[in-house]
Amino acid sequence: EYPHYPPCSPRDRASFAYETVSKRWPVILTQVIDAIYRACDSGTYATPEAEEEGKELIRKVGKLKYNISRNAIMEPIEDDGGANIELYNSMLSFLELQQQNMWFTAPWLYAECYLYRHLRTTFAFSKHWKAFDPFRGQKERAFKEMGKGVYDLAEMMHKLDTEKEDLDINEQALEVLFSDMIQMCLWGNTVDLSLLTSLDVDHLAQLQQVGAAANSARSDLILRNDTDALWTHVRQIKNARLDIVLDNSGLELFTDMVLADFLVTHTPFFSEVVFHPKTIPWFVSDVMPADFFSLLSAMTTPHYFGQAPSPSHEQYVTSLATRWQSYVDCGVFRLSSPPGQAEGEHMGEVVQENGVDWWVGPGVYGLMDENEDGIRALEALRGSGLVVFKGDLNFRKLTADVRWPPHTQFDQAIGTLAGRFPLLALRTNKADVIVGLREGFAQELDQKDKDWRWSGKYGLICFCPGGTV
Ligand code: F6P
Ligand code: MG
Asked: Which residues form a coiled coil (predicted)?
């Protein structure tokens, strides 16, 4: 039976799960309350009726916070017409049988997904706040601080454009560049607002070290690196489709798009990219369709990131945005989103795919083929040349978030997903679960740095080859 080990759980007081449920969630929920207060003073939410509803929402989020702190029972998700309710509630009934249906006794992964799904229901039942994303302001404010990362990467892409012909003939150079791009995209995942309880500018500056020099300085921090096997796969495909199951908005999404652009524009391997966002506000900073489009418009908004290092840098960013917008317009870059989900005030044009809501459910990926939505999600990935899973939460879902021995093989940990399609996980470690390490390595790390599993300082590049779905 899969998975064979007990779940990561806040029942273990020494775990990051416990730290999260007891300390980090209350901060995140307080930020939600702040966002409602702020919205009440502005725009569409400033009417007396919306404000009244806002107060009610604040009361409900406050109650949720209180319920978590007293380890209350998690109630079934109410039917708001949204996705995954059946799966959430059937898993909850199962947990109830084992008396694990409380905030501090449920498996951490389930409880955390439930938290964001439950929040969505709260807003969905209102009249004025249905489309409200309580994390949107945070996502935008953080991206504005990311100018350095954006300008550096845009300059790098500009240089690549001018060196294109050399790359066409020099496979060795292409391989080095490919590896750099993968690492750049990995470190993009360090930027995660759910870990930053306040916006610390120095910390944000440090997180933006995403160029080639920063890569080599940090390569020791990659605890497993399958880039060679990945390259062996990638170099033999042509005009394939790349799928990216996205994680965070802002600089991380920017690095995802740089990787996508590099592969489509500068290599023969891929000719189209499908980005898979979330359809509800999720783990604070995850990409929703609106965030995808606001990134493109931020790049062409003068002084969005403050003063550019030079007028040329401003130009590099604008021309990148122009190319990406043209890729969106002609369908080379597509957003996978279920019909009706990607509409609304900030959305612009969306190229619809046969998208699914599986990514905001509680299900682990190794059991995707046991659920109808999971099967639809697999269907959407069929035929992909490479599916990239970004970030920590995707890694937790890939590995079922259980306490595997750290030297467990990655392909064992991902259950029935192994071999279905070529799969790459790019994850900086922000949670207890770990697999894919050589034997004894975890113990060495325990001696060296007690926070190595969750500080976000270390990363993994895990590749599992495969045919098509
Ligand atoms: O709070 C839980 C958590 O899943 C952490 O493990 C991690 O810090 C964050 O939320 C999500 O990280 P990411 O954005 O990389 O998926
Ligand atoms: Mg995230």
From this structure: none
Please tell me if the CB atom of residue 278 comes closer than 6 angstroms to any atom of ligand 1: no
pLDDT tens digits along 358-369: 999 999 999 999
The whole-number average pLDDT for the span 231-239 is 96
Q: What angle is formed at CA 212 by the lines to CA 208 and CA 217, rounded to 5 degrees?
A: 80
pLDDT of residue 195: 46
Candidate of 249, 251, 364, 430 to mutate for ligand 1, largest count of ligand atoms within 8 Å of Cβ: 430
Identify the CATH number of the domain defined by range 136-464.
Answer: 3.40.50.10880
Q: Model ipTM?
A: 0.96
**Domain segments of the chain as ranges:** 16-124, 136-464
Structure tokens at 228: 């060679």
DSSP structural state of residue 427? E
Here the tokens at position 422 are 């070529």
Q: Distance between CA 438 and CA 434 in Å, rounded? A: 11
Same fold, 16-124 and 136-464: no
One-letter amino acid at 41 equals D
Cβ of 195 less than 6 Å from ligand 1: yes
With CA atoms as reference, report the closest residue to 184 among 159, 233, 218, 142: 218
Architecture of domain 16-124: Up-down Bundle (1.20)
CA distance 288 to 353: 15
Distance CA 202, CA 120 (A): 32
Measured distance CA(98)–CA(324) in Å, rounded: 50
- Give the pair of three-digit tokens for residue 10: 């806040």
What does the radius of gyration of the chain's CA atoms come to, in whole angstroms? 21
Q: With both helix axes pointing from N to C terminus, report the angle between 136-144 and 289-299 in degrees, rounded to the nearest 10.
A: 30
Q: Is 20 in the pocket of ligand 1 (CB under 6 A)?
A: yes
Backbone angles phi, psi at 5, to 5 degrees: -115, 160
**Ligand 1 nearest-atom number relative to CA 394:** 16
Q: Quick check: CB of 189 below 6 Å from ligand 1?
A: yes
Query: What is the number of the ligand 1 atom nearest to the C-alpha of 286?
Result: 14
φ/ψ bin of 257: left (φ > 0), alpha (ψ from -120 to 50), beta (otherwise):
alpha
Residue 53, class by beta-carbon neighbours within 10 Å (0-12 exposed, 13-18 middle, 19+ buried)? buried
Tell me: the pLDDT tens digits for 267-311?
999 999 999 999 999 999 999 999 999 999 999 999 999 999 999
Q: In testing the pocket of ligand 1, which one of 139, 192, 364, 433 has its CB within 8 Å of the most ligand atoms?
A: 192
Distance 249 CA to ligand 2 centre (A): 8
pTM for the full model?
A: 0.93
